[in-house]
Amino acid sequence: MGQIWLWCSIASMLLEEDPDYFANFWTQAGYIGHDRPDVVKDDLIDLTLPISRIITAQDLMGEEFAGPEYADSKAMILLMASMSGAWDLPVAIEVKGLKGGYSTGCGVLIKSGGAAGRQLFCTRAVGDIWFCDGRADANILRFRGAAAGDSVHLDNHAFLAFCYAYRHHISEDPLNDFLRVDGQPIYPQHGVPVQSPLMGVPYSGQYEGKLLWVHHTHDASLWPPQGVIYKRAVEDAQGPEKAREKFRLQWTQNAEHVPPMLLPTNPKRATTTWLIDYMPVIEQGLVDLATWVEKGVPPAETTYTFSDGKVSLPPSAKARGGVQPVVEVTANGTVRADVKVGETVTFTAKAEAPDGAGTFTQAQWDFDASGAFALKAEVEPGQTELSLSTTTTFDAPGVYFVTCRVRLNRHGDPTARRQIENLASARVVVT
């Protein structure tokens, strides 16, 4: 939700600041919308429909919206309503008649009635229910003044163009070198827009004290290169020697911007089978930062490479470092096994703890992508390496992701806080 909320809250500002880009995307050579309209045509929405009904924050408390498909939208809306008391705020509309297209990020312009002229954008659609937000008054009012029967223009030309904006607004930073050939931009360029007033600051790299930067490999809201940018900013501003005294960077693998519980789950695969709870890493980081400040012992840093916009981590814990275990899972000896219904599949998991990170306290298997992790493996105390094996069969055709999740603790205590985890999966195709 974070990144789509950011688009919805600044879209109107971007359209005002850079109208040429949003027009050129569909009309000029060098842009996907003009050169390859087939790429985006199935996602395109551009039509006017009547509002069937208005949904308030209070309505979301009803049985109709109790399903898991509404969970991620409801969480923030109900939190804000409980804090402000604005349970009557109209946060969504029902619109019927849309046959296809990509609704998330779509512009919703109210064309008639008491709220005519208000521009909102879709943060999420569940069937015919569209949750929306906007900038300034649109954020405060949402659908106040609108009523069933009023018309709305649904148009996602701007959002589809925005999805490719990174190609056409590159800075001089080497992080953008993958968008250049022989030092020249591949695509037509526009001025880099003003940064969002809602988040983000220019990085000076100047600060007093010590800083442990913990970045997530799967963060869709703050992309991994941001960690590299700040490391470089500190080195440029303070010099490599001072940066070494005051800065450390750790990577947390398989972690998103928010915990898995706050992310929507695919009905076919629980979010917790491919993303971890990273909070124990943050807690351990605070302990290690305090130790660095008070006793001069720096935190373990993570070894990584950065190339063409991609962060890569070494495959072994010894080479990678940091505080998080490394896990590998295979099915019949490979990352993908093709088997028949009823055929026995052997799964193997190998896990390693980085030097000084602690010892393993738990290992669990999940076979059905439910996130239940029903099978718990025996883990002897004091181990820094695990080699686990188990078997199962599948009684129906399909694609299965079998996951092993392991946890370690700095002191090897399975009852303590700061159980740092990682996971890995193997794919099984059953026919």
Structure notes:
- The protein has 431 residues and is of the alpha+beta class.
- It folds into three domains: 2-162, no CATH class; 211-295, no CATH class; 323-430, Immunoglobulin-like.
- It has helices at 2-17, 19-27, 32-35, 37-40, 71-84, 137-141, 157-162, 165-168, 225-246, 279-295, 317-320; strands at residues 46-56, 90-95, 107-110, 119-126, 129-133, 151-155, 180-181, 184-185, 211-216, 247-252, 305-307, 310-312, 326-331, 336-339, 345-352, 359-366, 375-376, 385-392, 398-409, 420-430.
- The strands form six sheets. It has a six-stranded antiparallel β-barrel. A five-stranded mixed β-sheet has the order 14-20-19-16-17. The chain has a three-stranded antiparallel β-sheet with strand order 13-15-18, with no helix packed on it.
- It starts with a helix and ends with a strand.
Query: Would you report the number of β strands?
Result: 20
Strand order of the largest sheet: 1-2-5-4-3-6
**Ends apart, CA distance between termini:** 36 Å
Helix content: 10-25%
Low-confidence stretches: none
- How many helical stretches? 11
Q: Describe the biggest sheet?
A: 6 strands, antiparallel, barrel
Give the assembly state of these chains. Answer: single chain
Strand content: 25-35%
Using the CA coordinates, give the radius of gyration. Answer: 25 Å
Mean pLDDT: 93
Class from helix and strand fractions: alpha+beta
Number of domains: 3
**Molecular shape:** globular
